[in-house]
């Protein structure tokens, strides 16, 4: 990569990070291109040159954010930690992500997700499902998931959660319950079995 491409990439990343920070604090609609430019230390013209419109920038910010989350999740999933520690880290980090969102940005994110054609859906289908199946197998090997529970049944269970979250206008309802829903997903309504 030559110097010009490297500087361009650095500017694009600075703009994406600035926009993400501002969107998470105030929501998409309340943030102007001028505010993003000031935070990224670039001109508004540069933003329009690289991203063409606020709508395009917003879509790329969502992708940028999903990539950041997925990279962190992959590190946890691929770690040498025991199964239960992985589940705890995943549960804790997902509730942390939800707590970082401004409710309006979360709603924008979930509206995009509800289309069924979002980047989140692409990552989920292409990368997350195979990795989750490997996690289920790991949990079975370590005795934390019932050996008789099929991966297909677990995936159907996951799909039910996903289908509900993709319904329009669900986002504001679930945001305050994110930690409870993640705990319910992993431990059920009975809770963690005592050893």
Automatic annotation (TrEMBL):
Which PANTHER family has this protein been placed in?
ACREF/ENVCD OPERON REPRESSOR-RELATED, TRANSCRIPTIONAL REGULATOR, TETR FAMILY
Domain annotation HTH tetR-type: ranges: 9-69
Q: What is this protein called?
A: AcrR family transcriptional regulator
- The answer to whether keyword Coiled coil applies is no
Query: Could you tell me which residues form the DNA-binding region?
Result: 32-51
Listed Gene3D superfamilies: Tetracycline Repressor, domain 2
Q: Which InterPro entries match?
A: Homeodomain-like_sf (IPR009057), HTH-type_Tx_Regulator (IPR050624), HTH_TetR (IPR001647)
Tell me what organism the protein belongs to.
Answer: Sporosarcina psychrophila
Keyword Nucleotide-binding assigned? no
For this UniProt record, the keywords arranged alphabetically read as follows: DNA-binding
């Amino acid at each position: 990569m030559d110097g010009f491409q490297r500087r361009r990439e650095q500017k694009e990343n600075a703009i994406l990070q600035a926009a993400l920070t501002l969107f998470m604090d105030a929501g998409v609609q309340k943030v102007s291109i001028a505010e993003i430019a000031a935070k990224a230390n670039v001109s508004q013209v540069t933003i329009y040159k690289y991203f063409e419109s606020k709508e395009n920038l917003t879509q790329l910010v969502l992708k940028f954010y999903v990539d950041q989350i997925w990279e962190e999740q992959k590190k946890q999933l691929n770690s040498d930690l025991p199964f239960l520690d992985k589940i705890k880290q995943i549960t804790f980090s997902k509730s942390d992500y939800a707590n970082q969102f401004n409710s309006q940005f979360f709603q924008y994110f979930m509206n995009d997700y509800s289309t069924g054609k979002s980047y989140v859906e692409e990552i989920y289908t292409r990368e997350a499902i195979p990795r989750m199946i490997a996690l289920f197998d790991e949990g079975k090997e370590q005795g934390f998931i019932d050996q008789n529970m099929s991966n297909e049944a677990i995936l159907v269970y996951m799909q039910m959660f996903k289908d509900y979250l993709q319904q329009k206008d669900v986002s504001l309802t679930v945001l305050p319950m994110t930690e409870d829903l993640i705990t319910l997903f992993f431990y059920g309504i009975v809770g963690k079995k005592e050893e």
